[in-house]
Design goal:
Elements lengths: L5 H29 L2 H27 L14 H29 L7 H28 L3 H30 L4 H28 L6 H14 L5 E10 L2 E10 L5 H18 L4 E8 L12
Parallel strand pairs: 2-3
Antiparallel strand pairs: 1-2
Helix pairs in contact: 1-2, 1-4, 2-3, 2-5, 2-6, 3-5, 3-6, 4-5, 5-6, 7-8
Length: 300
């Protein structure tokens, strides 16, 4: 899948809001016809999906704002704040679900129209599955923490919905009403796990985590292959800020080399990196040969 334009990314984020409304309505309908606390827990998670979809849309719009006087490096990290907030909301939803599950455990509820409720919930689950796969794909391809986090959260919702449907089907077949609150508690545990993953991944981005080791190896190879004329490249540093990738390093050249020739080498390296990593920010510090460290990236 090719990268999408900023406008299309914002439209995808807006579509998530509409889809979350549809799914939430379906899951609440499943709860209404059955009285199942497990379906209620699924509906509560859909409310979180709706709120986080709106926050993701806002964060993506903000992240595409160009750099300004107060934010000279851009607004890319706005998406990380969206993902952190999503993790917090997941925890709140899990606590509410635990409360409902405990009350239903103490006073088991007879399920009404379970077959209809399961069918409605299954329809909502299929919608979520398709959209989650799409969001994860687009989020990864376009380095969008907000879309990727939204997709992972919805995928977690899919997993819990399948568990709820299986649990309710067993409760209907066996008459074991305790399976209903038990499945609700398992839903809460699963979304807590997902919330933890969302928050930790986002905090890593806020802490300027280096790029993926595979991508960093590719950066090294490109620098090495296009630094002909230089003596050495060292102190390579990388970091991610949402969609933006920052690459900086020191390049050692012969003392007799002119500024113009050194600049040509820098342009050659930068062009190669930008072709491989769209939108990357490359900073090269040129040093005389006396600064060589005999370490770092070898020049081919």
């Amino acid at each position: 899948m090719a990268r999408v334009s900023p406008v299309l990314m914002q439209r995808i984020a807006a579509a998530s809001i509409g889809l979350a409304l549809v799914v939430m309505a379906l899951k609440y309908a499943a709860y209404s016809v059955t009285g199942s606390v497990a379906f209620l827990s699924d509906a509560l998670e859909s409310i979180v999906n709706l709120i986080t979809a709106f926050i993701a849309w806002w964060a993506i719009r903000l992240s595409f704002k160009p750099a300004d006087k107060d934010h000279p490096f851009g607004h890319h990290k706005a998406e990380y704040f969206s993902a952190v907030f999503e993790g917090v909301l997941i925890v709140v939803a899990a606590l509410l679900i635990f409360q409902e599950a405990w009350q239903a455990w103490q006073a088991p509820r007879v399920l009404e129209e379970p077959s209809l409720g399961i069918a409605i919930n299954a329809a909502a689950t299929f919608i979520n599955l398709g959209w989650a796969l799409f969001l994860i794909r687009v989020g990864r391809r376009n380095r969008s923490p907000a879309l990727a986090a939204d997709g992972r959260h919805i995928m977690s919702d899919v997993v819990t919905s399948v568990g709820v449907i299986v649990g309710l089907a067993l409760a209907t077949a066996t008459g074991w009403l305790f399976l209903d609150p038990l499945m609700a508690a398992l839903v809460a545990l699963n979304i807590l796990r997902e919330g933890y993953k969302v928050v930790t991944n986002s905090l890593s981005g806020l802490m300027d985590q280096a790029i993926d080791p595979v991508e960093e190896a590719r950066v090294r190879d490109l620098i090495s292959a296009h630094a002909d004329g230089a003596l050495e490249v060292h102190d390579l540093k990388t970091r991610l800020a949402g969609r933006a990738m920052f690459i900086e390093f020191h390049m050692v050249v012969p003392e007799a080399m002119t500024v113009g020739v050194a600049h040509d080498i820098c342009d050659r390296i930068e062009d190669a990196l930008l072709e491989a990593f769209e939108g990357a920010r490359v900073l090269i510090h040129v040093e005389p040969e006396g600064e060589a460290k005999q370490t770092g990236v070898p020049v081919l």
